[in-house]
Specification:
Three copies of one chain form a homotrimer. By secondary structure, chain A is α+β, with helices and mostly antiparallel strands. Chain A has one domain (2-131): Jelly Rolls, CATH 2.60.120. Helix content of chain A is 27%, strand content 36%. Chain A contains three helices and eight strands; from the N terminus they run ββαββααββββ. In chain A, the strands form two sheets. The first copy, chain A, has a five-stranded antiparallel beta sheet, covered by helices on one side. In chain A, strands 2-7-4 form a three-stranded antiparallel beta sheet, with helices on both faces. The interface between A and C is medium-sized, with 30 and 32 residues.
Chain lengths: 132, 132, 132
Amino acid sequence: METFPVETRERTEVVDVTGLVEGAVRNSGVHEGAAVVQTPHTTTAVVINEREGRLMQDLLDWAARMAPDGAGYRHDGIDGNAHAHLRGIMMGASVSVPVTEGRLALGTWQSVLFVELDGPRSRRLNVQVLGD
Amino acid sequence: METFPVETRERTEVVDVTGLVEGAVRNSGVHEGAAVVQTPHTTTAVVINEREGRLMQDLLDWAARMAPDGAGYRHDGIDGNAHAHLRGIMMGASVSVPVTEGRLALGTWQSVLFVELDGPRSRRLNVQVLGD
Amino acid sequence: METFPVETRERTEVVDVTGLVEGAVRNSGVHEGAAVVQTPHTTTAVVINEREGRLMQDLLDWAARMAPDGAGYRHDGIDGNAHAHLRGIMMGASVSVPVTEGRLALGTWQSVLFVELDGPRSRRLNVQVLGD
């Protein structure tokens, strides 16, 4: 497994990590298999979609409408960031992407995106490549 | 990895692809492992649930309430389909299903469902079967 | 693949199944790989997040706001639990977690959580560990 540092700079932010995952696939030497891409944090997510800049802002704005900050959550008595946990659960903590002929089987418009929901922070990303 | 064509006929639609995934598992000869089922598109999703017809309509209607079409998204200045991207992120672009004794470990009521969110279009589905 | 019984006691409830998944990883003898954790039911989910008690209540309350019970769903003419299916689709039926050095690569605050959305019932959890 490879672990990469991801430094986020904003309270909420989308970071394109496709290149990191592609590097892990190359380093693994796997020809046919899959990459499991996982965040080890509870207020971030990993998703696959188009990395177009305005869409990324739409994603962060939409997530904020789905689970607004400070909407009377019980956990906020402890930590103040329940909204970030809920958005992370909605988007998911890991994705699996097939690897074929030594490359990630992403579509033309797909990128692997790390979503910061309670930053800025020093984060990590785990990539495990399975197969032969 | 096997890639299957999926032709969608409606603007939004759910297509049961369980048979395609089961075929890929059989062809792979894998006895113990997992199937990674992935859409290479950014305005579709792959989920696991019951394929009952009225529930599938509920799913599409519910997704439309969660991320309504044309709700002032910035990306709509470029492409007009931000709602479909957001619904796809909410549902997810891939699922992993265990394979045991040469078969998908789906429950009695579970099917693998391809969700079209910006059709109709000619789509593809990737299935990679891992294991021995 | 290992299958574990999960008995739920409430209508909606979060059960920490991290220990079950860790046990399956140990039993598998896999050193480098990934665990695919899947629910075979259509009104439950498996997610990764912090198991803090108040946050778990927030999660169930939030899911109930996202897909309220009895909100005029068509499927409710058949079964009365469309809301539980929709919440399950939103959260997801499976997660994949890297295994490295013989252990699940969960972050400090992460647990694997089984989410009951239409209980109480006798449920099952499937864990398949891939790798060497």
